[in-house]
């Protein structure tokens, strides 16, 4: 009788790679890191210097540097796609954990809005091109090309483990990472200055505002030109509203590029992948309720705060905002604690293999949470030290405390899931079927499957003896439906609820609901200059944290 093919999974064996193939691995990485550090410091110096009129650095100087960096990155990406990736033996393996579909989908979504922002910028600056430097119009055009080229590059190459042109690839990836961070810094600075100007215009007259601009606050060179037409105002307001999407796009791209940089020259064993079936009910229902309620709270908050100058309307809007967030954060904290308790009953082993994607996920979760931690602690100090205290202050204090607790518990829940082995499905079969199914996982040296000449039955020969098995029984056993146990179902319900909750908590500050600027407690305690600066620096990290938490939940549980 002839032997049939083995059912056991043979792991991928990486090709033999002598150490001499990449002797200078540490040196190549160090050189690319030094390149990135110097470029990042140069960009940071120009961006921060361009924020003040008294310093002889203008916004078009910053745009010139960013334009040059983006053009170099575009040239390198074309070289990589057309040359490096097509070399023989360039990509011997791929990192299945890098660039999951939802992360690349989010990158495309933010990239589309970034393109719309660039179109609005081009339309705005073209309205009075005669009194502006040409770089102001060239910059959004180059940025649009950069977004398209980089998005295509990350979509097709995010999983690559490159093994040729190692040092050039490392330097190119670090240059791409630095360029995205520089664009992010510039966007955050422009948005912060714009919001500061808008808030200042509401509180002072036009004459005082112009005097403050001359006194040292930054003003864009476009402010010196007349933007009187309605279409010009639409372009101006439109691209400032789209800045949060461009900020998130730069952070998403930076994270994906960093993983690619870590995977340069890396060999990976291929493991089996588990296909999850989306079966949710409780988690998605509760999450959708919070999502819809949050959208309603956002609309009412924006209407009451921006359209009314009455103190009572503002207080009602803040009360409504804090109440919703307290309920949402409280529920998220409880379910995260519940998920951590469920892990105590989980018998899966911890995954201790080296994984750059997981390391980056953990670092980003912990690092981005520091932004919201900082805002919360500053708020707690201001509320406790200030007098008198009213109902809004009490809600603000509860909101700050719950924000700290929710970030902590959610990080524990997600990080513990990232370090778990892929779940093993439970099978409720009889002992005969279990023995059959186990044949696919036992050592092939201990078990062999043989087909008699008449094709009637299969015979399993093992150390324990022999047993006659019909082929149809084996096929039915292997094709039997896999049922999730209660722990797996509970973790999926929790993850779906957290996913939708994080989405609404990202949408609210990203689209203008920022009570830190509307609550007078912190402004009066820290002053009109220190507190807005704290929020402007820390809040983008909080917004990015929500989106990264969504991506991590999708990767681990869904």
TrEMBL record:
Location (main, coarse): membrane
Cellular compartments annotated: Cell membrane
Domain of life, source organism: Eukaryota
Region (Disordered): 1-21
Single GO term (MF): proton channel activity
Pfam families assigned to the protein according to its UniProt record, in alphabetical order: Otopetrin
Protein topology in the membrane: Multi-pass membrane protein
Transmembrane domains' residue ranges: 30-50, 62-81, 101-125, 137-156, 240-259, 280-301, 321-343, 363-385, 494-513, 533-554
Keyword Cell membrane in record: yes
Signal peptide region: none
Keywords from the named record: Cell membrane, Hydrogen ion transport, Ion channel, Ion transport, Membrane, Transmembrane, Transmembrane helix, Transport
Biased composition (Polar residues): 1-11
Family: Belongs to the otopetrin family.
A GO term from the CC aspect: plasma membrane
Keyword Transmembrane helix: yes
InterPro entries: Otopetrin
Name of the protein this chain belongs to: Otopetrin-2
């Amino acid at each position: 009788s002839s032997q049939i093919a083995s059912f056991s999974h043979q792991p991928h064996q990486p090709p033999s790679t002598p150490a001499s193939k990449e002797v200078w691995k540490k040196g190549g990485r160090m050189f690319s890191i030094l390149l990135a550090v110097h470029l990042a410091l140069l960009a940071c110096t120009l961006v921060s210097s361009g924020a003040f009129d008294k310093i002889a650095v203008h916004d078009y100087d910053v745009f010139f540097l960013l334009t040059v960096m983006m053009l170099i990155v575009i040239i390198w990406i074309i070289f990589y796609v057309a040359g490096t990736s097509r070399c023989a033996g360039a990509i011997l393996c791929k990192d299945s954990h890098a660039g999951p579909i939802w992360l690349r989908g989010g990158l495309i979504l933010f990239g589309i809005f970034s393109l719309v922002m660039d179109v609005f910028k081009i339309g705005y600056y073209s309205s009075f091109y005669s009194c502006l430097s040409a770089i102001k119009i060239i910059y959004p055009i180059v940025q649009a090309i950069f977004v398209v080229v980089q998005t295509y590059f990350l979509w097709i190459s995010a999983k690559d483990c490159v093994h040729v042109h190692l040092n050039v690839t490392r330097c190119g990836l670090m240059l791409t990472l630095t360029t995205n961070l520089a664009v992010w810094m510039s966007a955050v600075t422009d948005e912060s200055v714009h919001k500061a100007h808008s808030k200042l215009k509401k509180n002072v007259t036009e004459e005082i505002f112009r005097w403050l601009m001359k006194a040292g606050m930054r003003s864009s060179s476009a402010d010196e030109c007349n933007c009187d037409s309605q279409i010009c105002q639409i372009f101006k307001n439109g691209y400032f509203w789209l800045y949060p999407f461009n900020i998130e796009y730069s952070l998403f791209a930076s994270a994906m590029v960093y993983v690619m940089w870590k995977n340069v020259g890396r060999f990976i064993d291929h493991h089996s992948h588990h296909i999850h079936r989306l079966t949710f009910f409780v988690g998605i229902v509760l999450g959708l309720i919070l999502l819809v309620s949050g959208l309603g709270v956002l609309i009412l908050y924006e209407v009451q705060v921006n359209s009314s100058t009455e103190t009572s309307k503002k207080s009602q809007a803040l009360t409504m905002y804090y109440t919703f967030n307290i309920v949402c954060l409280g529920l998220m904290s409880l379910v995260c604690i519940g998920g951590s308790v469920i892990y105590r009953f989980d018998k899966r082993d911890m995954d201790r293999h080296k994984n750059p994607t997981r390391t980056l996920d953990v670092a980003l979760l912990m690092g981005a949470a520091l932004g919201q931690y900082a805002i919360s602690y500053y708020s707690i100090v201001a509320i406790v030290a200030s007098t008198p205290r009213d109902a809004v202050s009490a809600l603000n204090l509860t909101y700050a405390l719950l924000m700290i607790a929710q970030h902590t518990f959610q990080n524990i829940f997600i990080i513990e899931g990232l370090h778990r082995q892929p779940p093993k499905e439970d099978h409720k079969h009889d002992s005969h079927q279990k023995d059959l199914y186990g044949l696919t996982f036992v050592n092939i040296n201990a078990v062999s499957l043989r087909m008699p000449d008449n094709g009637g039955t299969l015979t399993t020969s093992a150390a324990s003896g022999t047993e006659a098995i019909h082929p149809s029984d084996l096929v039915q056993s292997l094709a039997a439906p896999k049922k999730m146990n209660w722990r797996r179902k509970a973790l999926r319900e929790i993850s779906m609820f957290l996913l939708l909750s994080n989405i609404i908590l990202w949408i609210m500050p990203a689209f203008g609901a920022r009570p830190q600027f509307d609550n007078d407690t912190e402004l009066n305690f820290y002053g009109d200059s220190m507190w807005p600066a704290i929020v402007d620096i820390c809040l983008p990290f909080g917004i990015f944290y929500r989106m990264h938490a969504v991506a991590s939940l999708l990767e681990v549980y869904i």
